[in-house]
Amino acid sequence: QVQLVESGGGLVQAGGSLRLSCAASGSIFSINAMGWYRQAPGKQRELVAAITSGGSTNYTDSVKGRFTISRDNAKNTVYLQMNSLKPEDTAVYYCNADVTTIIDTTESTWGQGTQVTVSS
Prior knowledge:
Blueprint: E1 2-7, E2 10-13, E3 18-26, E4 28-39, E5 46-51, E6 57-59, E7 67-72, E8 77-82, E9 91-101, E10 106-110, E11 114-119
């Protein structure tokens, strides 16, 4: 099994910054794409940013220029640096990883979520 543990959420004023981290552990052979999603109250979960094993990234339009996704393959960790935060960024943020396990199965694994609240 594979586990993802997120950290770094919290309360911040508009214009501030937060850095989310997500560490993967367990029966990992390799990690393919990793991503951050968010879900605001009453809304569907949406992709915020994703990064491939080779480092290619993509972002939803609303965070381009403000958020940066990165990963440390040696640590099986993905990060989301969030700058110039806005109240509309308030949501529970979830980490996701597409993992190939040591027994050659593939898993799409989710973290437990971390709350990000941006006050105006």
